[in-house]
């Protein structure tokens, strides 16, 4: 009955030409109580199917049963949210039976959520929930109407006298404005830390950081001129640098440094996660840079760079840390195990939220 | 330079193990000014790559160039938004280079937006935009915290004296709470029709209609008991059946009939799009049904069923239309060319919006 229903509902969502290609519905991934995970994929014709995930160091083979369902069960993994994908006769694809797709412009992977025995900081818990609003703003800089996600905390009232601090939060290089919520779970992390009294209620603005074919530096202008203005026009925000933060991951971490450190009068908090800095904008801003460190150290309430020791950007990040320290800037670092992953990124973000606006 | 940047940004968003599998970034789909479309896919090893889309009657072959990029250009298609996918040596997958994925639980396809020479009703236009809020509500019926998307119209103010009518809008069988915005573009259609004065400002609530493993009829209870209550508690809504509508597509169309027609004291507008009705709940509700037609015709401001003549549910939908008319219910029908598609669904929805709350 259940399978019949699945098949019927699959049938209902497409034209008949495409239905003919559609596999039967199967459950994948299945996360077991001991944190092992079973992945499944249906193909009667494939010769080799493997699964790769960011909890593995190499792809694992899947095996086919008599009904054409390929599967593999991996041993217990550390509770977290991981990207994974299948390779079917060398074709990489997202898990067709998993709703949760990594929001990205350049690849399609799925995400699997392995819950902790105790609820993890990014999990949906029984606390008051903020909301995420999908909005559009006009960028005079870029001559476009562009998308924007805005987290408002539980109890947010746009008309109350309460005004809020704002964190501007930027995704990685080929991510989208949805990656910080869909993969980073920024909203649940904020809900939980606010409920625990560990983070201040704040607005979190998640713009779309890719401005191609415009030069990357135009995003700095867009942020400083258009996005901040949109927020000040449409939300009860505190228009004071002490209540404004910028953070971002990877390419967004580089953008964070460019935006924040060239505008210390506008952002008192600058938090870069595994920043990618091999850009013309970074070179222009920070080669032969001669900041007034004393003044900047007063303006910046926190300047933090986070990175994992297995991150492939670990070396350039260390060099940048040394460079900034060499300019006598007060810089906190969070250096932890792990790679250039969203697992690490959520950790950096949870750390940031507990520092902001205090 | 551009390609270098693409490669770098692709590189930055994953671990190195996965990067090794990653193809070079290419542009796909490219929609040309004459409405022809070029699709591209990279593989040096594939033997056969085809593309299928809902603007085609059969898959078309793609051809490989010397750099391993497969492509096909299809002749001009009627401007609309279409789902499509690739088949690579018989493996069906979404376009890796296209950000826009069809929100669905059971397949992964991409969507391509072919703009009209004049802006189509579902396009992002230069009008005031409403917002979509991603929220969570507690369902006492289902014992779960469940997701919900809520469209609020331009100028919406939760604290003003203005109270709003509400449309409850349900997705298809294997879709998600995001399908009505991501594929249906319900928000842009509402923005544009409100801007043109053709639709009343309203709230649009898009719940997640799948309640498995609970019986499907539990969604009716969830809607009537939990979702309406959540809206009345959290939004300035008019708590009167004349200002409450329910609509849905496919399985959601069947849910619409079950919800609306068994609660005509709660919903004055019942709008089913290609409803799927081969369910226990529908059978229980409408076999040997003996409604008080006179009373229901007074309660229902509009009862509409829409379907395409090529829809594979056309025959059962026609039979249900005859069944409801045989009960002397006032029923409007919108019967148009086209199949069981979201292209048709957007058309039905735009028609509904212009009828509601007038």
At the fourth level of CATH, the homologous superfamily of the largest domain in chain A is Alpha/Beta hydrolase fold, catalytic domain
Give the low-confidence spans of chain A: 1-21
Strand order of the largest sheet of chain A: 10-11-13-12-14-15-16-17
CA radius of gyration of chain A is 22 Å
**How many beta-strand segments of chain A?**
17
Instruction: Name the chain pair with the biggest interface and residue counts per chain.
Output: A-B, 77 and 76 residues
End-to-end separation of chain A: 56 Å
CATH top-level class of the largest domain in chain A: Alpha Beta
Write down the CATH topology of the largest domain in chain A: Rossmann fold
Characterize the structure shown.
2 copies of one chain form a homodimer. Chain A has about 350 residues and is an alpha/beta fold. The first copy, chain A, has 2 domains: about 20-115, Immunoglobulins (Immunoglobulin-like); about 130-355, 3-Layer(aba) Sandwich (Rossmann fold), CATH 3.40.50. Helix content of chain A is about 25%, strand content about 25%. In chain A, the strands form 3 sheets. In chain A, strands 10-11-13-12-14-15-16-17 form an 8-stranded mixed beta sheet, with helices on both faces. In chain A, strands 3, 4, 7, 8 and 9 form a 5-stranded antiparallel beta sheet that branches. In chain A, strands 1-2-6-5 form a 4-stranded antiparallel beta sheet, with no helix packed on it. Chain A has helices spanning about 1-10, 15-20, 180, 185-195, 215-235, 250-260, 280-285, 295-300, 315-325, 340-355, and strands at about 30, 35-40, 50-55, 60, 65, 70-75, 80-90, 90-95, 110-115, 130-140, 145-150, 165-170, 205, 245-250, 270-275, 300-310, 330-335. In chain A, helix 4 runs parallel beside helix 10 (about 340-355). At the A-B interface, helix 1, helix 2, strand 7, strand 8 and strand 10 of A face helix 1, helix 2, strand 7, strand 8 and strand 10 of B.
């Amino acid at each position: 009955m259940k399978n019949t229903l699945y098949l019927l509902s699959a049938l209902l969502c497409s034209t008949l030409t495409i239905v003919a290609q559609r596999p039967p519905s199967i459950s994948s991934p299945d996360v077991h109580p001991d944190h092992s995970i079973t992945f499944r994929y249906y193909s009667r014709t494939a010769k080799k199917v493997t699964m790769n995930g960011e909890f593995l160091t190499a792809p694992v083979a899947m095996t086919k049963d008599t009904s054409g369902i390929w599967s593999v069960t991996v041993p217990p993994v550390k509770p977290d949210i991981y990207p994974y994908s299948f390779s079917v006769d060398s074709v990489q694809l997202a898990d067709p039976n998993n709703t949760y797709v990594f929001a990205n412009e350049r690849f399609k992977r799925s995400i699997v959520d392995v819950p902790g025995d105790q609820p993890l900081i990014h999990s949906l818990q029984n606390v008051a929930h903020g909301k995420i609003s999908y909005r559009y703003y006009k960028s005079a800089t870029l001559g476009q109407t562009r998308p924007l996600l805005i987290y408002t905390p539980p109890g947010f009232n746009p008309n109350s006298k309460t005004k809020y601090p704002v964190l501007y939060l930027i995704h990685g290089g080929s991510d989208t404005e949805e990656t910080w919520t869909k993969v980073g779970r920024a909203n649940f992390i904020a809900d939980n830390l606010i409920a625990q009294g560990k983070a201040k209620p704040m607005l979190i603005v998640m713009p779309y950081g890719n401005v191609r074919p415009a030069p990357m530096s135009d995003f700095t202008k867009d942020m400083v001129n258009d996005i901040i203005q949109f927020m000040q026009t449409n939300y009860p925000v505190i228009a004071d640098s002490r209540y404004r933060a910028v953070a971002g991951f990877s390419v967004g971490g580089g953008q964070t440094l460019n935006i924040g450190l060239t505008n210390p009068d506008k952002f008192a908090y600058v938090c870069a996660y595994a920043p990618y800095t091999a850009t013309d904008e970074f070179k222009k801003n920070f080669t032969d840079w001669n900041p007034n460190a004393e003044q900047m150290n007063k303006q910046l309430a926190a300047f933090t760079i986070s990175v994992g020791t297995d991150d492939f950007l670990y070396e350039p990040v260390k060099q940048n840390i040394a460079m900034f320290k060499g300019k006598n800037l007060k810089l906190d670092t969070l250096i932890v195990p792990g790679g250039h992953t969203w697992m690490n990124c959520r950790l950096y973000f949870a750390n940031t939220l507990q520092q902001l606006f205090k």
